[in-house]
Amino acid sequence: xxxxxxxxxxxxxxxxxxxxxxxxxxxxxxxxxxxxxxxxxxxxxxxxxxxxxxxxxxxxxxxxxxxxxxxxxxxxxxxxxxxxxxxxxxxxxxxxxxxxxxxxxxxxxxxxxxxxxxxxxxxxxxxxxxxxxxxxxxxxxxxxxxxxxxxxxxxxxxxxxxxxxxxxxxxxxxxxxxxxxxxxxxxxxxxxxxxxxxxxxxxxxxxxxxxxxxxxxxxxxxxxxxxxxxxxxxxxxxxxxxxxxxxxxxxxxxxxxxxxxx
Length: 262
What we know:
Blueprint: H1 5-17, E1 22-25, H2 30-43, E2 48-54, H3 64-71, E3 77-82, H4 89-92, H5 98-116, E4 121-123, H6 138-143, H7 149-152, H8 157-166, H9 192-207, E5 214-217, E6 222-225, H10 231-234, H11 237-249, E7 255-257
Parallel strand pairs: 1-2, 1-4, 2-3, 6-7
Antiparallel strand pairs: 5-6
Helix pairs in contact: 1-2, 2-8
């Protein structure tokens, strides 16, 4: 028997209520946003801290404070923590465990800040669908005893968007996002020039209306990914010329479109 989504949400709030005081790892994405909303709803602003790590790897949510103020000001407190992943050698070495190293370092720092608030519980927005993907960072949750309530009660991505819309979260339909390092292959080492090139290309594509786009550098050039509904738009002569010139200005002679889309 399939459990109704509102019953799952009731289970979620019941689980969160048992924690009493929590920190929520808050990326600004819709998963952690629904989790933060639920935590604030049942525990109240004094007992909920949203922890957001600011770094060169961030992209997509350009003004986290504005997003927070619009949606969560009355239910939680926001703590901005500056991170410097390019100073973390295990991450910069850019092997297949880079996401693990990054998340472990980030969540360790989050926990240190929570200790100052006398809070022992850190919540993560992993949902039940995420376990279908290979994500090395998942291991960190068990190692650092970080709770993933959305996954525990069986809530998936479509249900998260439905609930977020129901509760009036303004960004319920934004495309999913991930850190800029995920655009790069493994090896050579990560440096800020590669990350900034990706950020500039994706930022300009979004200005052109290609929300949720990806730019993935390779030895052949740069591969672009856009949503299926944007294929016709990106195929126009005007857009192709603008995008080609943009990518060439960043040092990529050849520009490719991934026909699988996003």
